[in-house]
């Protein structure tokens, strides 16, 4: 069973009990779609104290719903998960750094009031999305394309990435890439649906010579370290204090 209740303007409570079925997800879809299509920021409280399981049909319906409104999920500013299960809290802690634009926190079943207070403490509209995202530092004319990431990456920032990169993907030559993280506040989920970006990423893999990453968040370091040995180019991670060394290394190929 699933119930949705509006606690106050832009703050909603989702209560899950027992085994969730497809009809429960359809209820969530029916009630949350108008909310997500409206104005943000939004606060969500997910009450999972009595949640036991979910059917395969419900999982499929939930994925269809979430991907169908992917661009709208960035309107959620705060999400509180109420559960006594350590596994759920651990999963939330793992996801939180990847999606820092959504402030997530778990609460025990005895802390419902604190969860409601957390989810209700929403940022002002002026503060939402005020920082954007990608600055071009080097345009590739000298064989190096460099970007700085600062704040939240929006769909509009994608063009800043693609425009200087695309000409280098047409021939057989190599291009070096440097990405510097000044700060990272997440990304617009709509970017995940941008086919041109995904296609360019796959094409760029065969055209890269060296790839330097400076000041990356911990989760980026973990992923990069894992995939680096499998890539057909040289990848190296640098601390934020090693910016000069990163530029020297990436240009010395």
Brief descriptors of the model:
253 residues, alpha/beta, five-stranded mixed beta sheet, elongated
Can you characterise this structure?
The protein has helices at residues 22-36, 56-68, 86-95, 112-120, 157-165, 195-204, 218-227, 243-251; strands at 2-8, 11-20, 42-54, 76-82, 103-107, 134-139, 144-149, 175-181, 208-214, 234-238. Helix 1 (22-36) packs parallel to helix 2. It is 34% helix and 29% strand. The longest helix is centred in the first third of the chain and has 15 residues, at 22-36. A five-stranded mixed sheet has the order 1-2-3-4-5, with helices on both faces. With 253 residues, the chain is an alpha/beta fold.
Radius of gyration: 21 Å
Question: Helical residue percent?
Answer: 25-40%
Computed structural class: alpha/beta
Low-confidence stretches: 126-130
Number of strands: 10
Q: How can the largest sheet be summarized?
A: 5 strands, mixed
Mean pLDDT: 82
**Individual helix count:** 8
Strand content: 25-35%
Strand order of the largest sheet: 1-2-3-4-5
- How would the global form be characterised? elongated
Oligomer: single chain
Element-level helix/strand string: EEHEHEHEHEEHEHEHEH
Q: Give the CA-CA distance, first to last residue.
A: 59 Å
Brief characterization of the structure:
With 253 residues, the protein is α/β, with parallel strands linked by helices. Helices cover 34% and strands 29% of the residues. It is built from 8 helices and 10 strands.
């Amino acid at each position: 069973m699933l119930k949705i209740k509006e606690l106050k303007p832009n703050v909603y409570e989702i209560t899950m009990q027992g085994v969730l079925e497809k009809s429960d997800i359809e209820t969530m879809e029916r009630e949350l779609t108008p909310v997500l299509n409206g104005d943000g920021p939004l606060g969500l409280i997910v009450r999972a104290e009595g949640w036991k399981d979910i059917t395969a049909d419900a999982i499929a319906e939930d994925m269809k719903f979430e991907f169908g409104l992917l661009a709208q999920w960035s309107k959620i500013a705060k999400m509180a998960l109420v559960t006594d299960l350590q596994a759920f809290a651990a999963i939330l802690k793992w996801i939180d750094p990847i999606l820092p634009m959504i402030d997530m926190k778990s609460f025990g079943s005895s802390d419902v009031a604190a969860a409601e207070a957390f989810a209700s403490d929403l940022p002002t509209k002026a503060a939402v999305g005020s920082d954007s995202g990608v600055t071009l530092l080097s345009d590739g004319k000298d064989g190096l394309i460099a970007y700085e990431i600062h704040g939240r990456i929006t769909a509009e920032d994608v063009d800043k990435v693609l425009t200087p990169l695309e000409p280098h993907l047409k021939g057989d030559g190599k291009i070096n890439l440097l990405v510097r993280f000044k700060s990272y506040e997440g990304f617009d989920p709509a970017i995940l649906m941008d086919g041109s970006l995904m296609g360019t990423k796959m094409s760029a893999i065969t055209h890269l010579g060296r790839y330097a990453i400076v000041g990356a968040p911990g989760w980026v370091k973990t992923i990069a370290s894992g995939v680096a040995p499998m890539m057909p180019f040289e990848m190296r991670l640098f601390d934020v204090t090693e910016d000069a060394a990163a530029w020297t290394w990436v240009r010395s190929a």
